[in-house]
Every structure is written in C-alpha cells, then in structure tokens.
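Q: For a teaching handout, I want to show students what a protein-ligand complex looks like in token form. Below are the inputs, and the small molecule is tetrahydrodeoxyuridine. Please produce the holo structure.
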Amino acid sequence: MADRLFEEAVKAAGNAYCPYSGFHVGAALLTADGRIYTGCNVENASFSMTVCAERIAIFKAVSDGVKEFSAIAVAGSSDGNFSRSCTPCGACLQVMSEFCGSNFKIILADGEYLLSDFLPVSFGKENIK
Ligand code: THU
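A: Here is the structure, written as tokens, with tetrahydrodeoxyuridine included.
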C-alpha cells in the first residue's frame, strides 16, 4: 500500500499550482476504511495564502465527513524527480495531529515514518480545557 499511496501522491503533484516556487507537491491520504484523498499545493500571489498539499488532502476528506486516517504519502519535486523526500511542514504536522494519532504513518520517498517521529508533542484539544 505504501508504494501505491506514494504513486498517487506523485500523480497529484501534477495538479500543483506553484507558479512562484516551481516546487510541485502531491499528497495521498489513506482513510481508515481504505479510501484515498489526494491534494496538491495551491500557491497565491499573496504568498502566505499558499496551502500545502497535505492540508488540502486532509481538508477535502474532513469536508466530506471523513475524519479517520491511517497514512499519508507526500511527494515533492521541482524537476520531475520525486526521489528526494519532502518532509511535511510544521503547520501540516499540526493539522495531522488534530485528526491522527501518533501511529499515523507518513510515507516519504526515502521510507516510512510515524507522525510522532516528526511531532512528538503537540498542542491539542486537551490544552484548551
Ligand atoms: N509545500 C507543500 O505543499 N507541502 C510540504 O510538505 C512542503 C511545502 C509547498 C508549499 C509551497 O507551495 C511550496 O511547497 C514551496 O514551499
């Protein structure tokens, strides 16, 4: 499944809207019941409005009422070669932590990680009580 998910992420990167960075990113999110939601980065002339591929995939799923996930694959490249890992940014890790447990898998070009590898501790619901 990891390979299939990574392939879907590479495919999704084909839709990246990235005229400013030229860096194409695709994400493929596996739901707990086996469906795949994809996303790509969408940039904006007002640079800070840019949204990463991972958050697009997660928000697409959540807006469909799906909130249980088991893995996400991320592929990024500026030249069509997706063999170098594209590590999710801090904002995307925070969004993952909202919906995914520490065993959530993050599949990159160089292998498989856990959300807890990149974000061992995060701000969450329990902090707001
Ligand atoms: N980007 C992503 O979509 N996901 C990541 O994990 C890292 C960065 C995008 C944001 C921006 O459009 C471009 O890559 C360069 O930062």
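A: Two things your students might notice: Residues 18, 21, 23, 25, 41, 43, 50, 52-54, 74, 86, 88-89, 92 surround tetrahydrodeoxyuridine (CB under 6 Å). The chain has five helices and five strands.
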